Amino acid sequence: MKIFSVEQIQNWDAFTINKEGILSINLMERAAVACFDWIVQSFDESYCFKIFCGKGNNGGDGLALARLLNSIKYQVSVFIPHNNKPGSPDFEENLKKLKKTSVHISVLQNENSFPSISEKDIIIDALFGTGLNKPVKGFYKEIIGYINANSNDTIAIDVPSGLYVDKSTITENEDVSIIKADYTLTFQNQKLAFLVAENEPYTGKVVFFDIELSKDYEASTPTPFEYIDDSMIKGIYQPRKNFVNKGNYGYASLLCGSYGMMGAAVLSSLACLRSGAGKLTSVVCEAGYGIMQTAVPEAMCMVSGEKHIGNFDDFQHFDVVGIGPGIGKFKSHVKLLENLFKSFKRPIVIDADALNILSENEELYSSIPVDTIITPHPKEFERLFGKSTSDFDTIDKAIETAKEFRIYIVLKGHHTLIATPDGKGYFNSTGNPGMATAGAGDVLTGIITGLLAQKYSPLQSCLLGVYLHGLAGDIAAEGLSQEALIAKDIVENLGNAFKEIQET
Ligand SMILES: NC(=O)C1=CN([C@@H]2O[C@H](COP(=O)(O)OP(=O)(O)OC[C@H]3O[C@@H](n4cnc5c(N)ncnc54)[C@H](OP(=O)(O)O)[C@@H]3O)[C@@H](O)[C@H]2O)[C@@H](O)CC1
Ligand SMILES: [K+]
Fold first, then answer.
1. Beta-carbon count within 10 A of 7 CB
2. What's the CATH number for 2-223?
3. What residues does the YjeF N-terminal domain cover (predicted)?
4. What's the rounded mean pLDDT across residues 370-379?
């Protein structure tokens, strides 16, 4: 699914109106009906709705929604902050229609005119949507403060008012004024603002409504950002052929583990095999040999070093190398990375301690082979490429870095970001907070390594890898709870995740 900028969202609106030969107010009605249907399903008639409307089209949505709720006898009142300018044409049209109903409409002049809010009131925020064009100040700020001070459920229409959709709101103005919604009912596609941690306090649960904006526009409009959904994954996943042997699915290797950290080696190796690699050699230190052979009998083992991997350089057998899970931070690992970068000309996945070693040896950056995949979590990313001023800055930095070094960056998080050498950013749609647990990253390294071995391209391996990893985690959490989920459960549910992809 494409993630559009504000300008593109506005163009999409206009394109649809043109193409379908409808009026913009018809589109507004579609949006309002979608919100209305959801509200009717979610709240019974004992609730009252207090709708705060700005004078743009977001406010117009609020007015249309007020009329619809009133038509089936919900108690509704509407509040419009005083503003000398006329409203947008569709706002004015909906105001005219609303004045013919029994809905009470008040113009808010100052804070003395704020309504009292009682227990059964639901607040609907239709002050500003995608048309926000400056930081919120003055009277609007007071209104937002008043709404946020109430503990009642607040439903934001399209976007919590005060939040920019495609750039950071937080950095521009320290003292921000943004609605803290419990629900955001948004139209059509995913929005960049909903994918970053810095906006978590504002969006609440985000619910998407398909208001049938033109599919042609979506297909033909390029955008740097996409949301990884099941239709994208369906296009990537390749079912197995019948006449095959293990040679067809590649020879993976993982350089993993050290004394006291063999769990990371076991988890990444199991995940690599479970994601379908034909065969796997795990390169481990002597101290870990017995553990690997016992815990992962399906993997072959090569030994290098005593308590941690030594100067291994025998890479030529493998189709792909994954390096990092549990290897520890040892001086000799600098040489290990140098060996790898110099002698191995096929895909590489770099994770965990291997990234920490890299970050302390910046002179190695320029020798990272093209198309390498690195899988940092935010702290590792910061150690590698420096601090960011906001989550949006991190996104830009990841994309610029991926372009500069011609690598893929899998930046792990609630919506893992894949930044690509051609300047695109893909956000993952699967996964849950239960996966913030030791070893989950090692599992992801194993999965991506296993997919690369099977000749999925680096981009496909990243996309399918993060999606499968998150989906396996979601299936595991469903059975176990997020709290009880451990990394092994992600591995154990990879099969179920594959089955779900095959069925969709
Ligand atoms: N796209 C779609 O497909 C569909 C979109 N739809 C809906 O349209 C919404 C977008 O509507 P929109 O473009 O009219 O802008 P909107 O968010 O109402 O804001 C503009 C108003 O706010 C004002 N204003 C702005 N910032 C301000 C500030 N800081 N402080 C004070 N004032 C400020 C600005 O005033 P100005 O600054 O220009 O004087 C103007 O009056 C979208 O979110 C969705 O809900 C659906 O109806 C149908 C399908
Ligand atoms: K809003």
1. 10
2. 3.40.50.10260
3. 9-219
4. 97
Give how far the C-alpha of residue 213 lies from the chain's centroid of Cα atoms, to the nearest Å: 22
- Ramachandran class of 388: left when φ > 0, alpha when ψ lies in -120 to 50, beta otherwise: beta
Ligand 2 midpoint to CA 109 (Å): 20
3-state helix, strand, coil in the chain (%, to 5): 45, 15, 40
For the whole model, what pTM was predicted? 0.95
- Encode pLDDT of 225-251 as tens digits: 999 999 999 999 999 988 888 788 999
For the CA of 126, the closest atom of ligand 1 is 45
Quick one: fold of 230-503? UDP-N-acetylmuramoyl-L-alanine:D-glutamate ligase (3.40.1190)
pLDDT at 171: 64
Residue 162: how many other CB atoms lie within 10 Å:
24
* E strand or H helix that includes residue 42: helix 24-42
**What is d(CA 342, CA 87) in angstroms, rounded to the nearest whole number?**
64
The mean pLDDT of the chain is 96
- d(CA 40, CA 43) in angstroms, rounded, equals 6
DSSP category for residue 275: T
The preferred substitution site among 12, 26, 128, 210 for testing ligand 1, maximizing ligand atoms within 8 Å of CB, is 128
Atom of ligand 1 lying closest to residue 130 CA: 43
CA of 166 to the centre of ligand 1 (A): 14
Residues near 466 by Cβ (< 8 Å), separated by ≥ 6? 228, 410, 416, 418, 428, 430, 431, 444
The annotation places the binding site at 57-61, 125, 129-135, 140, 158, 161, 264, 326, 377, 412-416, 441-442
Report how far apart, in Å, the C-alpha atoms of 283 and of each of 98, 383, 437, 454 are.
71, 26, 24, 19
Residue 173 has pLDDT above 80, yes or no: no
Domain limits, the chain: 2-223, 230-503
Question: 470: helix, coil or strand?
Answer: helix
